[in-house]
Design brief:
- The structure is a single chain.
- With 379 residues, this protein is mainly α.
- It has a domain at 95-136 and 176-370: Rhomboid-like fold.
- The protein has helices at residues 2-18, 26-33, 41-51, 70-76, 99-143, 151-161, 164-182, 189-195, 207-211, 219-240, 242-267, 277-290, 308-325, 332-352, 358-370; strands at residues 295-298, 301-307.
- The relative contact order is 0.10.
- Residues 1-21, 37-53, 60-76 and 374-379 have low confidence and may be disordered.
- Interacts with PSEN1 and PSEN2. Binds OPA1.
- Its EC number is 3.4.21.105.
Length: 379
Amino acid sequence: MAWRGWAQRGWGCGQAWAQPSGGRSCEELTAAVVPPRLLGRRFNFFIQQKCGFRKAPRKVEPRRSDTGTSSEAYKRSALIPPIEETVFYPSPYPIRTLVKPLFFTVGFTGCAFGSAAIWQYESLKSRVQSYFDGIKADWLDSIRPQKEGDVRKEINKWWNNLSDGQRTVTGIIAANVFVFCLWRVPSLQRTMIRYFTSNPASKVLCSPMLLSTFSHFSLFHMAANMYVLWSFSSSIVNILGQEQFMAVYLSAGVISNFVSYVCKVATGRYGPSLGASGAIMTVLAAVCTKIPEGRLAIIFLPMFTFTAGNALKAIIAMDTAGMILGWKFFDHAAHLGGALFGIWYITYGHELIWKNREPLVKIWHEMRTNSPKKGGGSK
């Protein structure tokens, strides 16, 4: 009975507090109705529950992958992994986020071409030995009894029938297929989004610029890119050589992602990007610039052919329009950056970079020549 009376008085307090003509606060009404000696801990909690009417504290959520509607657009694209549960942290000073990617782009490009020059030196040095080893292997095969249905021999026969360009891009295709399989593992989703998608709003900025070049979430996306790379592999390797092609391809992936970073920071449309399209656009643009009169066709429409020069112009026009108009399905900034890098490298870059590799090769040659003489000798 006592508790019921308290409840009734407490509810009356709440009604009096709610009336605008009351004139007294809830605490004053409570003191007037209930003696002070009855105000215990339990009753105080009851009064606070009835008379407090406090707003629940507002939860501050971190920003998602975008500041505007671009996040929704990226979620609609089938080429991008689902990012509803992924949180990105755009910097309050967007321009500063480009400093580290800029240094990484310049440093990685220099290391790629330097490594390619050393690789070419080692390849030329071992070519004579490989020639004699090949003659010896052919002679042993001629006197060795042949095995029927030898799987290894069939694989070697298939491999030897490939062109230099096709053998070069086989490793790239295998790496893309491996990363595509990793996307199918549910426990790796957060790691893949963190390191295999490039986004200037992510905490990891530099390594995804390279790793995302080998990353595809959609099977159609990967198949289309790898088909184009395989189709142009023989031409680009014949133009540049195996070592120079690898340097251009890897550098193009990083450079195209940096251009994408710049566009996203400038427009405020943050979101993840992935795929080899930027690097493949460099390959396509380089071949079309070097052989503008070559004839190309679309796989689904082989009866319609067009020149490589006209194809390059159409691709650049489409990606420029997509970047300006804000089309979301593709990363048009990365495509455009890759295409412009391919045109620049064939026109000027080969002369400025690759033909000036001799000082580095001489330093490496001296290191290789002098290294066996170290230790034990006296002047």
